[in-house]
């Protein structure tokens, strides 16, 4: 019995340990990992009954291979003493290893039919060679990691299929399916590396994103069918077909010839080498969208793609997990080795470092981590030296790590160990396929001369920016002591140099030409200030060339990471957050000496030359975000996606760690921090947060047992309300700068309450119109109503924050169940005389109707919307009103943030409900009520609108016609009928 096995294990383990040869130091370290600092493994049973996975994890932390094998042997000996089966591979006997698995049902007959072939061998006849020998099973963590990598590979094809379906819908779905089957059956083999059939995932990704294939297999066929439909029975090859508009069209295509790529140009066919195509098509490379010599085309072109889709922009910039999944497998193996070495170094410091991130790491530990990185990456000892006196980042180590990871951003080591980083004025910032390429706002270098800017100074000239009357912004001039203190602090850290005169500056620059920017002080929390160098007023930003657009992680990305990790265990209990802040941020990156002439400011009689990135230069966020994104990618490589996730918003990373033991979570946090510290990154320890509740990007993340709750602090709600009220108090036109600021804050809040976007879109439109005209104010016009609704929303949210014990409407909970199909469904319909709806509990076929309503259109309805009874002109209005009435009736029966599916057979009402806008005044009025009602009620935050065919919507249709003599359907016999209250002013009041 189990009790007898337990009693057999109540024997002192010391004798067995001595006989097998496990030394005291190893045993103490093992006990510390398995039992904690205050307990020891005293008996055979204590060791035998520990889960084999926990023992394996502890054994992996032992340095000596011999000691690892002896501890494994001791573990299985103890298990045998207690009557348990062996668990370790190194103690498994040969006979046991060859023991066949029990035959499945029907396998004996198959074996008789095919001789001695096993199922796996039979499959290899038809698929590819598969080893029929035994193999170790994947661990749960390894399995989850494999799933994440597989999802990342298939996401490329899935997104393309979804895009095609969005365009062509059900009508041409067969074309999409056929093309997908062709791609998997034959096309994918063309993308396998020569002689290497193991990189199937890479081959699939490249085949799934081959634009020319999908264009030929889907787009062309669709265009041919559409052309045949529009031309009746006329053949598409008929040369007498009319040529509309006098412009030629390519045969079998709906696009004009001048809008098509020339396929002959891609291969360099005779007559298609110049800039002009004899057939009127575009002579541009299909991959990079540029004209250049061979090789060209999706597969052959070696240039970087210019479209965000080809760059996988979302994967490489916003999500560190998806980015590392695109790196070669060898880099994951290498960084796992680095992780194991760092964990061995960090482990002795675990007990001493009680406050992770809130106190500096021991320099001896950080230096040992640097040595470990150099050893694993086969680097030279000099790699850990500081190579740029103006930056604490160690470029030699960055180069070792980037080369080992095969990372894309190979320019960063040159920025950190060479002359410094470019800022896009005199030296270009070359894109590295990290962020989407976007040079739409980059200036033409031939149209603007740097030395003709308002802040430029040349030989023998005295610009207004440099005369004796030069003044900085009022915020800096009014606080001269504070401004000078900040400048001296920057100088002490090597971030800038201060000169007493212009002559000293010219001597340092080795040039009499430079651009002077004005200084300003921006307030920070705690009464502090940040130095801002305004490159816009000096004209510097007009000549900065930024060829990439920064993509930063969103709150939704951090939410998805939490749901992914919690899904591994079924709860949020094993998760813990760590939020740190990179100190000095932009100042960590030194600027190339050739660009120093653009890094000059003046305060009083002093000239200041900044050696690092300035706050206020247009390119500074791009350069720094490439560095910080690379640091997070490298740190993410240390652990699999099921152990740890990292998101970094500029200089503010948030780390989510998953482990059963708090000690293991602490170890992983310190491993990442020491890894970053070894690279030279400095932390703001006073801003560090650790635990189940942290603040990141202004939002509060709180981990509970069953849900992750995201909320906006009350002070931010109050600030948005006050800013909106101040805009509303202005007359017809409002100042553009505070309006843009208000829109940005509301846009950030819409990460939690997406219904705010319904009122935000008209305001953004007004901002865009005013900016395009170069005006400093905007005419709100009809958008003033949207501003009123937002002010009303924030006022209500503030009142709910003040109510004791209540969750305010800017707080949202995410449960694991939110990824499952909704358990609650509402089906509605409307006729020309009434509305009806049914509430279902359950999923799919097992859904049961529990309540329903059916009500006739009242006089108040007809007067409010100007409709006529029996007329179909207002059908869409009644359909949308049915949705609003159903939610009002049953919202009290829903849980906070629970997923609710809303079905209707009206495509118009579905579109208006999802987009929250329409050209119809009546529909807009209902949409605004719906949006604000959902935004103010946590129970309505997860509405999922779906279409149902009219022939399948018989229950709700009958209910909407009860006043016409229809009967309640028999299927609703067990459901409860709910009476609708009068829809007067009180009903529509919020």
Explain what the structure shows.
This protein is an alpha+beta fold. It is 42% helix and 12% strand. Among the domains are: 2-92, no CATH class; 101-127, no CATH class; 147-229 and 257-313, no CATH class; 450-562 and 587-619, HIV Type 1 Reverse Transcriptase, Chain A, domain 1 (Roll), CATH 3.10.10.10; 727-809, no CATH class; 820-988, Ribonuclease H-like superfamily/Ribonuclease H (Nucleotidyltransferase, domain 5, 2-Layer Sandwich). The protein contains 37 helices and 22 strands. Strands 1, 2, 3, 4, 6 and 7 form a 6-stranded mixed β-sheet that branches. A 6-stranded mixed β-sheet has the order 21-20-17-18-19-22. It is globular and about 90 Å long. It starts with a helix and ends with a helix. The model is unreliable at 94-135, 231-255, 304-316 and 459-466 (pLDDT under 50).
């Amino acid at each position: 019995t189990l009790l007898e096995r337990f009693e057999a294990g109540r024997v002192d383990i010391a004798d067995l340990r001595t006989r097998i040869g496990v030394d005291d130091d190893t045993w103490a370290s093992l006990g510390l990992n398995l039992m904690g600092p205050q307990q020891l493994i005293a008996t055979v049973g204590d060791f035998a009954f520990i889960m084999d996975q926990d023992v394996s994890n502890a054994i992996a932390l032992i340095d000596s291979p011999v000691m690892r094998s002896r501890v494994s042997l001791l573990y299985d000996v103890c298990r045998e003493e207690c009557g348990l089966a062996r668990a370790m591979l190194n103690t498994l006997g040969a006979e046991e290893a060859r023991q066949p698995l029990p035959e499945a049902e029907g396998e004996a007959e198959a074996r008789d039919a095919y001789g001695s072939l096993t199922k796996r061998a039979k499959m290899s006849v038809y698929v590819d060679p598969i080893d029929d020998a035994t193999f170790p099973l994947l661990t749960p963590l390894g399995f989850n990691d494999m799933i994440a990598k597989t999802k990342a590979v298939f996401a490329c094809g899935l997104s393309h299929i979804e895009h095609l379906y969005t365009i062509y819908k059900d009508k041409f779905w067969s074309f999409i399916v056929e093309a997908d089957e062709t791609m998997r059956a034959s096309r994918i083999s063309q993308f396998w590396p020569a002689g290497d059939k193991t990189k199937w995932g890479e081959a699939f990704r490249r085949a799934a994103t081959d634009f020319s294939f999908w264009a030929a297999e889907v787009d062309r066929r669709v265009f041919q069918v559409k052309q045949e439909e529009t031309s009746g029975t006329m053949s598409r090859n008929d040369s007498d077909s009319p040529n509309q508009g006098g412009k030629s069209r390519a045969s079998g295509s709906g696009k004009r010839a001048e809008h098509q790529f020339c396929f002959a140009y891609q291969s360099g066919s005779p007559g298609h080498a110049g800039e002009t195509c004899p057939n009127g098509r575009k002579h541009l490379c299909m991959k990079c969208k540029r004209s250049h010599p061979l090789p060209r085309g999706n597969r052959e072109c070696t240039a970087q793609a210019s479209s965000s889709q080809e760059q996988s922009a979302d994967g490489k910039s916003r999500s560190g997990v998806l980015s590392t999944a695109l790196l070669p497998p060898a880099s994951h193996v290498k960084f796992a080795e680095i992780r194991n070495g760092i964990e061995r170094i960090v482990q002795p410091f675990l007990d001493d470092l009680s406050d992770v991130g809130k106190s500096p790491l021991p320099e001896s530990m950080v230096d040992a981590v640097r040595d470990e990185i150099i050893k694993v990456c086969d680097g030279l000892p000099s790699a850990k030296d500081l190579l740029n006196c103006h930056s604490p980042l160690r470029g030699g180590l960055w180069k070792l790590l980037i080369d080992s990871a095969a990372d894309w951003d190979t320019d960063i080591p040159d920025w950190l160990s060479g002359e410094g980083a470019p800022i896009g004025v005199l030296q270009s910032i070359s894109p590295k396929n990290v962020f989407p390429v976007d040079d739409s706002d980059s200036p033409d270098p031939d149209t603007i001369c740097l030395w003709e800017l308002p802040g430029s100074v040349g030989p023998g000239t005295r610009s207004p920016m440099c005369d004796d009357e030069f003044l900085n912004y009022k915020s800096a001039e009014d606080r001269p002591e504070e401004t000078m203190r900040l400048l001296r602090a920057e100088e002490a850290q090597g971030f800038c140099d201060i000169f007493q005169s212009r002559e000293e500056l010219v001597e340092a620059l080795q040039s009499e030409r430079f651009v002077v920017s004005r200084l300003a002080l921006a307030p920070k929390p705690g009464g502090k200030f940040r130095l801002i160098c305004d490159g816009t007023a000096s004209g510097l930003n007009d000549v900065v060339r930024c060829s990439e657009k920064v993509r930063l992680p969103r709150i939704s990305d951090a939410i998805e990471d939490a749901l992914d990790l919690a899904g591994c265990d079924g709860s949020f209990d094993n998760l813990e957050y760590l939020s740190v802040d990179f100190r000095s941020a932009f100042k960590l990156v030194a600027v190339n000496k050739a660009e120093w002439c653009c890094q000059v400011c003046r305060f009083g009689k002093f000239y200041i030359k900044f050696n690092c990135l300035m706050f206020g230069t247009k390119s500074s966020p791009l350069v720094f975000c490439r560095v910080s994104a690379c640091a997070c990618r490298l740190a993410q490589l240390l652990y699999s996606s099921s152990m740890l996730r990292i998101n970094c918003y500029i200089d503010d990373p948030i780390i989510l760690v998953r482990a059963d033991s708090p000690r293991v979570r602490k170890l992983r946090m310190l491993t990442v921090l020491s890894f970053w510290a070894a690279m030279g990154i400095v932390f703001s320890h006073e801003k560090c947060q650790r635990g189940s509740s942290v603040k990141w990007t202004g939002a509060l993340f709180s981990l509970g047992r069953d849900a992750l709750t995201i909320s906006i602090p009350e002070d931010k709600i109050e600030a948005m309300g006050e800013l909106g009220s101040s805009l509303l108090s202005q007359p017809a036109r409002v100042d553009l700068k505070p309006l843009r600021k208000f829109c940005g804050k509301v846009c950030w809040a819409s990460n939690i309450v997406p219904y705010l976007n319904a009122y935000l879109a008209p305001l953004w439109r007004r901002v865009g119109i005013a900016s395009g005209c170069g005006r400093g104010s905007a005419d709100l016009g009809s958008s003033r109503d949207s501003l009123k609704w937002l002010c009303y929303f924030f006022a209500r949210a503030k009142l709910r924050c003040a109510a004791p014990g209540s969750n305010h409407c800017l707080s949202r909970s995410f449960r694991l169940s939110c990824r499952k199909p909704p358990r609650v469904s509402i089906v509605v319909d409307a006729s020309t005389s009434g509305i009806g709806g049914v509430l279902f509990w359950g999923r799919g076929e097992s859904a049961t109707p529990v309540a329903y309503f059916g009500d006739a259109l009242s006089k108040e309805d007809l007067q409010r919307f100007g409709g006529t009874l029996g007329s179909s002109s207002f059908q869409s209005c009644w359909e949308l009103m049915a949705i609003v009435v159903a939610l009002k009736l049953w919202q009290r029966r829903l849980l906070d943030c629970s997923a609710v599916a809303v079905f209707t057979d009206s495509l118009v009402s579905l579109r208006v409900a999802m987009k929250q806008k329409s050209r119809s005044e009546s529909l807009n009025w209902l949409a605004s009520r719906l949006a604000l009602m959902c935004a103010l009620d946590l129970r309505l935050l997860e509405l999922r609108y779906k279409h149902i065919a009219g022939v399948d919507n018989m229950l709700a249709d009958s209910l909407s016609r009860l006043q016409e003599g229809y009967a309640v359907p028999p299927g609703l016999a067990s459901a409860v009928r709910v009476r609708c209250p009068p829809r007067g002013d009180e009903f529509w009041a919020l």
